[in-house]
Structure prediction request, 77 residues.
Amino acid sequence: MQAAQAGNQTIWKQVYREALFELEPQLLQSKLQAAQSAVDARLFELRSRIDSEPREVLELTDAQRMLRYLQEYEQQT
Prediction:
């Protein structure tokens, strides 16, 4: 069970990093959307469990905030 949890934690972080460091404008929007989906799915998973890790929940909410900012910024440019 812990291996699956660690895998899920790694997946959202990897997808999130890929979006943050994407340099190609034509790929950025799809990577931001993929990262948002991965973050939302992981948050849902953690909130449905009693033993969720508070630190990861905080990291996820920070990631959500950053992704929203980047999506808004992209829409303005």
The two ends are 43 Å apart (CA to CA). DSSP finds three helices and no strands in the chain. The longest helix spans residues 25-47.
